[in-house]
């Protein structure tokens, strides 16, 4: 978890995440896992979602809207998109400083990067009681913000 290493430097990011999650999910405290994505020429992230739990599970259906995923684009020396799959394929231009938040069950990917360096932060956010409401043990790699 990047918050273990750059916690103070990430304070402004945490403030924005917390504010947006409070508006979207409700609550004041959130569990977060954060990591950096660094791409060099021709690297990408393949099609995936951040939750592997089956969405037809009734407990997960009840709690799916207590979690969000997001990314913050920091730097790129060439244009790039993150592609989200809502009802249809939706490319979203990466703009320095923009944070995009989306449901944890939204498939997404990036195409192979065509520059020398692209840097972003990605994160998963859960309400403070998400895991206990699901009857699960809270993963130890999450940090409370």
Produce a short descriptive summary.
This protein has 145 residues and is of the alpha+beta class. The protein has helices spanning 11-25, 58-63, 130-133, and strands spanning 30-39, 67-76, 81-85, 89-93, 99-103, 108-110, 118-127, 143-144.
Protein topology:
Elements: H1 11-25, E1 30-39, H2 58-63, E2 67-76, E3 81-85, E4 89-93, E5 99-103, E6 108-110, E7 118-127, H3 130-133, E8 143-144
Antiparallel strand pairs: 1-7, 1-8, 2-5, 2-7, 3-4, 3-6
Number-wise, the strands total 8
Mean pLDDT: 92
Q: What global shape is seen? A: globular
The share of residues in helices is: 10-25%
Strand order, main sheet: write it out.
5-2-7-1-8
Question: What is the count of DSSP helices, taking H or I runs of 4+ residues?
Answer: 3
Rounded to the nearest angstrom, the distance between the terminal CA atoms is 13 Å
- Global structural class: alpha+beta
Question: What profile does the largest beta sheet have?
Answer: 5 strands, antiparallel
Provide keyphrases for this structure.
145 residues; alpha+beta; five-stranded antiparallel beta sheet; three-stranded antiparallel beta sheet; 3 helices
Structure description:
This protein has 145 residues and is of the alpha+beta class. The chain has helices at 11-25, 58-63, 130-133, and strands at 30-39, 67-76, 81-85, 89-93, 99-103, 108-110, 118-127, 143-144. It has a 5-stranded antiparallel sheet. The chain has a 3-stranded antiparallel sheet with strand order 4-3-6, with no helix packed on it. β3 and β4 (89-93) form a beta hairpin. It is globular and about 45 Å long.
